């Protein structure tokens, strides 16, 4: 499908100019990082295959979180390809959280009502905050699949370091310092070009994407095997 022409006045302001630069970066990343992009396309296909295979599953509630994890992954791909590096990590954290929530609620179906009633009262809000802690979800994932849970924990901490929290690594990876005799100029890069930071974000996006989907294997193990998703994931993981 051909893209429509931009509407009148598009590109006459700094924000839409930035959007066009982001799109140009997406094209450049797609063209220049063929191996990394190919892996991400494979991961996207694996998610879509898993989602299509969930019809009539008794664990339908966890499927909502599988869809949200995939949606997060799609957004992270766009941000990474555009060079919006810290923003990409913030979305990748959400991808992992959706996977962990889905697994937790599949294993604790009685907790669904607690989660759904979050905004009914202050007491209900406290109940959700007390129960739904990432540490608790990671502990549960450890009991179900320790190697995958270890990877999830490591990646979760990386996303926090590089953009999901305003930490020093998130700042420094986009900070440029230009010094002259009479002043120092600080700049923050909004759109990263070809760089080590871009390469790491692409790799992390693949790692989080694979890990997020693999966490759901504990919920849909039989379906993953029938759909050959288990073998697909094992193949995609090679070299990551």
Could you walk me through the main structural features you see in this protein, from its secondary elements to its overall organization?
This protein is mostly helical and 240 residues long. It has one domain. The chain is 71% helix and 4% strand. The chain has helices at residues 14-32, 34-52, 60-82, 85-107, 111-116, 122-131, 134-144, 146-164, 168-172, 196-215, 221-226, 229-237; strands at 175-179, 184-188. Strands 1-2 form a two-stranded antiparallel sheet. A hairpin with a 4-residue loop joins β1 (175-179) and β2. α3 runs antiparallel to α4 (85-107). The longest helix has 23 residues, at 60-82. The protein is globular and about 65 Å long.
Described by strand count, sense and barrel closure, the largest sheet is: 2 strands, antiparallel
Distance between the termini: 33 Å
Q: What integer is the average pLDDT? A: 93
- Measured by DSSP, the beta-strand proportion falls in under 5%
Helix run count: 12
Shape: globular
The total number of structural domains is: 1
Structural class: mainly alpha
- Rg, nearest Å: 20 Å
Reading the helices and strands in chain order gives: HHHHHHHHHEEHHH
Q: Count of DSSP E strands?
A: 2
Strand order of the largest sheet: 1-2
Low-confidence region ranges: none
Helix content: over 70%
């Amino acid at each position: 499908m051909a893209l429509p022409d931009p509407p009148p006045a598009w590109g006459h302001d700094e924000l839409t100019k930035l959007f066009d630069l982001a799109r140009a970066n997406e094209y450049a990343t797609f063209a220049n990082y063929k191996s990394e992009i190919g892996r991400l396309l494979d991961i996207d296909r694996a998610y879509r295959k898993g989602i299509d295979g969930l019809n009539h599953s008794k664990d339908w509630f966890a499927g909502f979180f599988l869809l949200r994890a995939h949606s997060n992954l799609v957004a992270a791909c766009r941000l990474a390809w555009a060079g919006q590096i810290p923003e990409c990590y913030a979305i990748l954290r959400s991808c992992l959280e959706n996977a962990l929530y889905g697994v937790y609620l599949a294993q604790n179906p009685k907790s669904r009502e607690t989660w759904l009633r979050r905004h009914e009262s202050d007491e209900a809000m406290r109940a959700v905050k007390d129960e739904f802690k990432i540490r608790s979800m990671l502990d549960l994932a450890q009991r179900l699949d320790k190697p995958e849970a270890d990877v999830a924990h490591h990646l979760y901490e990386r996303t926090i370091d590089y953009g999901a929290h305003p930490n020093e690594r998130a700042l420094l990876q986009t900070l440029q310092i230009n010094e002259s005799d009479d002043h120092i100029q600080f700049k923050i890069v909004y759109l990263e070009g070809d760089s080590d930071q871009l390469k790491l974000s692409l790799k992390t996006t693949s790692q989080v994407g694979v890990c997020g989907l693999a966490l759901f294997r504990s919920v849909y193990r039989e379906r993953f095997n029938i759909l050959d998703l288990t073998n697909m994931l094992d193949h995609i993981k090679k070299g990551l």
